[in-house]
Amino acid sequence: MKKIVKNGRIFTEAEDYQADILIEDEKIVCIGKELSGEDAEIIDASGCYVVPGAVDVHTHMDLDVGISRAVDDFYDGTVAAVCGGTTSIVDHMAFGPAGIPLHYQFEVYKKLAEGKAVIDYGFHGTAQHVDADMLAELETMAADGIPSVKAYLTYGFRLNDADVLQILRKMKEINGITAFHCENHDVVEFLKQQHKNEGKTAPIYHAKSRPNLAEAEAVDRVLKLARLADDAPVYIVHLSCRESLEAVREARRQGQKNIFVETCPQYLLLTEECYQREDGLKYIMSPPLRTQEDCEALWDGLADGTIQVVATDHCPFNYGKEKQMGRDDFTACPNGAPGVEERLMLLYSEGVAKGRITMNRLVETLCTKPCEIYGLYPKKGVIQPGADADLVIMDPNASGVITHSRMHGAVDYTSYEGMEIQGGIRQVMQRGNVLVKDNQFIGEKGAGRFIHRKPYTGE
Ligand code: URP
Ligand code: ZN
Ligand code: ZN
Fold first, then answer.
1. Percentage with pLDDT > 90 across the chain
2. Whether residue 313 has its Cβ less than 6 Å from ligand 1
3. What is the pTM of this model?
4. Which residue, by CA, sits nearest to atom 4 of ligand 1?
5. Ligand 1: which of 180, 335, 415 to mutate, most ligand atoms within 8 Å of CB?
6. What are phi and psi of 12, to 5 degrees?
7. Fewest CB atoms within 10 A around its CB: which of 11, 39, 116, 391?
8. How confident is the model at residue 458 (pLDDT cuts 50, 70, 90)?
9. Atom from ligand 1 closest to the CA of residue 285
10. CA neighbor of 315 nearest in space, from 120, 75, 64
11. Which atom of ligand 1 is nearest to the CA of 315?
12. What is the average pLDDT across 19-34?
């Protein structure tokens, strides 16, 4: 079935023009003026913006964190994602039992996602230990469509510097990308214990236990290890503060290549004042929310290109249930917050409509760049002939208020309740199928496909 998206204003990372888009067999086949086709269904995008389906390269669907499990599975979570304009995700697989090979979790995750995901999906590997078998397996994971692995510098399966160096060397050899959760584990654990000993167990002490410099030190360390590994590609997830940005800028000033930086809407828009609220537990995530100064620094970093990607780190736990585990002690609260549905709306409203970033930059950071970095481009993340027909039709003149009752995930809150929003999403298409119309999901459970990603092609 042919479709033509007519009269929309198309934005790519570099362009802004009025044209029609002809879709056939799940792909964009032609872009031009006044396209027609007798047998084509017409989708009217007059007065609207048309952007590539957004891609979220940092989600945690169905994440098992030991004490609890993220409440969005691959169905609820991907329905929420697509209702917010995200048409592909790359999910970070959870830690599994100690000593497992990387493929163990891949098999687990295939079963979690198959038959449930409503949009296309890929996975990042998760490093839990390093030895010769694991290093060899990084190569077979890449051959199986997973050319990226995440290493944690904190939490139970954190890696030491020698482990990190070995992974970076191997990933450089096989053109893979290593993503890092950067926080100095010993500093964080020491401060958590100190606060607990002093009876300081309220949510604000989550933030006070994870200071900016504990993150920036770890970012700086990872960057230097990557440099030692001959500028191995390195991707910093959920960067949250000014000092970490400075570490990135300094490394680039020294000439280091292949550095990629991600932040998330919560670090651009929310501050640690949230922890002082009655419902402060909702915002327990790592790294924690920072100050207004940090938010402004991140917006500047996004506008000037220091930051390449805005993802979400979507990791939802119900406030009414799982988050209450931290009621008397912030260290017992599962870490993470929802956000997969709100991202595009927030970045348009708070970013583009308020003049902080351009529409091209929005497309670059939410759609194109994450695909280039993680091997989904040019199948995803771009509007051009040959690409999958993953499109979002946005009405820049709509307005509304973010409220939980209009959201689609399984979690019982949104971190942005009551926020006024400029712009709205009219329709979302994946591979030419309309999955969302006027905030209603009309797609099919299990229609999402695994994306076999390609190796990193270099800066
Ligand atoms: O608090 C967070 N961010 N939870 C999800 C896991 C992670 O660290 O990315
Ligand atoms: Zn993390
Ligand atoms: Zn995460």
1. 99
2. yes
3. 0.98
4. 336
5. 335
6. -115, -170
7. 39
8. confident
9. 1
10. 64
11. 5
12. 97
